[in-house]
Design goal:
Blueprint: H1 3-21, E1 48-50, E2 54-57, E3 62-64, E4 76-82, E5 89-90, E6 104-112, E7 123-125, E8 133-134, E9 138-140, E10 144-155, E11 158-166, E12 173-175, E13 180-187, E14 193-200, H2 203-210, H3 226-229, E15 232-236, E16 242-246, H4 247-253, E17 257-258, H5 279-291, E18 322-323, H6 347-353, H7 371-382, E19 393-394
Parallel strand pairs: 5-17, 7-13, 18-19
Antiparallel strand pairs: 1-2, 2-9, 3-4, 4-6, 6-10, 8-9, 10-11, 11-12, 13-14, 15-16
Length: 395
């Protein structure tokens, strides 16, 4: 090929890249995948564009959300996934999708700010709304306080977890291999205050949840499953125009996902906050995302006999009239995991309410009680009918 033709092709590639970039600044560096090592700062990955007023996913960093998110001391979360160009994730109907080597999954934890509080204030808004969120997975930094960003990185040897904690200036996040404790004051709309000891997990604690199969002992993402991702998301197109689309079909259209069946065959769990859904659907979705990665036939909680994935239909496995196996003082002197119609006599609600480290469930990821989640599970148990008789047994 002549030099003239090579230059022409190079010029066309530059033009195509510019068109794909849309209105993004030309100076933004592309994402960097670190195949080994543990970069000390989040900025070394170039996952985000950061200005004084806005945090935005970089080019080809795909924001996403879940139908029902995991509870973490009322933290809000910005989730993203990036894969090397030309690679694809493979669909699975029940387990986490199979992502290629080079994938970077991020989850940024943040809280809405309180009016009049300084940027580094420990007082934040306790909310389950969408304060500070902008279309396209962007965050308004005048309205939110960033706390941490966790990365799951798919390397040749498997997934690794890297927790980064944001500095007071909100300009970068530093790797905290041993985790961290961030004291916060959660303030609700009525100005009621609650102290929270927000825990950034160390790398071993990350494995405690993400190694959800004791048989394979492999580290996997938790939320990136079809039933959690089957929902709409507000994207931005290359011209900055808002575009709402189903996440799975959008990923397929962009060449990020293969093997997606007809959408009628794709499972979906409810949004636990959606009052138009049944109490049963909402409660099962809540238990699925918060509990099922441990409480399954192969998970760390398998010896409890309590399995809480949304596809489990056996009443005993779901805790109905099930005697605990090894809960110790975690029973609160209650006899069954779930007593139909009687949440105050059920072990499940007792452990969800407790903040005692030796009693509370989940064991990690919270220092305060999720009042709204507890209320939902109480309503779910109260709606059940029947009695636990002598035939009740441990599962």
């Amino acid at each position: 090929m002549s030099l003239k033709n090579v230059l022409a092709l190079a010029g066309a590639a530059v033009l195509a890249a510019a068109l794909l970039a849309g209105c993004r600044p030309a100076a933004v560096e592309p994402v960097v995948f670190h195949a080994d090592g543990q970069p000390e700062s989040l900025s070394q990955w170039h996952l985000f564009e950061l200005s004084s007023a806005r945090l935005s996913p970089n080019a080809r960093v795909m924001p996403y959300d879940l139908n029902s998110p995991l509870f973490t001391d009322y933290a809000h979360k910005l989730r993203t996934v990036w894969m090397p160009e030309g690679t694809v994730a493979h669909y699975d109907g029940s387990e986490a999708f199979d992502f290629p080597v080079g994938t970077i999954i991020s989850k940024t934890f943040y809280y809405p700010r309180l009016d009049g509080e300084p940027r580094d204030s420990q007082a934040v808004l306790r909310s389950q709304g969408h304060e500070g969120e902008l279309a396209g997975g962007r965050l308004d930094l005048d309205k939110v306080r960033l706390v941490e960003t966790r990365l799951l990185v798919r390397r040749e040897a498997g997934w690794v977890a890297l927790p980064y904690v944001w500095n007071a200036e909100q300009t970068d996040a530093r790797l905290m291999r041993a985790g961290d404790l961030v004291p916060l004051t959660l303030v609700d709309a009525g100005d009621a205050r609650e102290e929270a000891a927000y825990q950034v997990p160390d790398q071993n604690q990350c494995a405690g949840c993400h190694v959800s199969n004791l048989q394979t002992k492999q580290f996997h993402p938790i939320g990136l499953k079809a039933r959690h991702l089957n929902r709409e998301f507000a994207y931005l197109d290359d011209h900055g125009t808002e575009l709402t689309a189903n996440q799975l079909t959008h990923w397929q259209k962009l060449g990020m996902l293969d093997g997606l069946p007809d959408m009628a065959a794709v499972p979906r769990v409810a949004n636990w906050q959606d009052a138009s859904e049944t109490v049963d659907a909402r409660a099962r979705a809540y238990l699925d995302i918060n509990c099922a990665h441990c409480h399954s036939a192969v998970g760390p909680g398998n010896t409890s006999g309590l399995w809480l994935a949304s596809d489990i239909n056996e009443p005993l496995r779901l805790g109905r009239c099930k005697l605990p196996i090894a809960a110790g003082h975690g029973t609160g002197n209650r006899r069954f995991d779930i007593v139909p119609g009687k949440p105050d006599e059920s072990i499940l609600t007792y452990r969800m309410v407790s903040n005692d480290p030796g009693v509370m469930m989940p064991e990690l990821g919270r220092s305060v009680t999720h009042a709204e989640g507890v209320a939902l599970i109480r309503d779910w148990i109260a709606s059940q009918h029947g009695e636990c008789g002598q035939g009740s047994e441990s599962g």
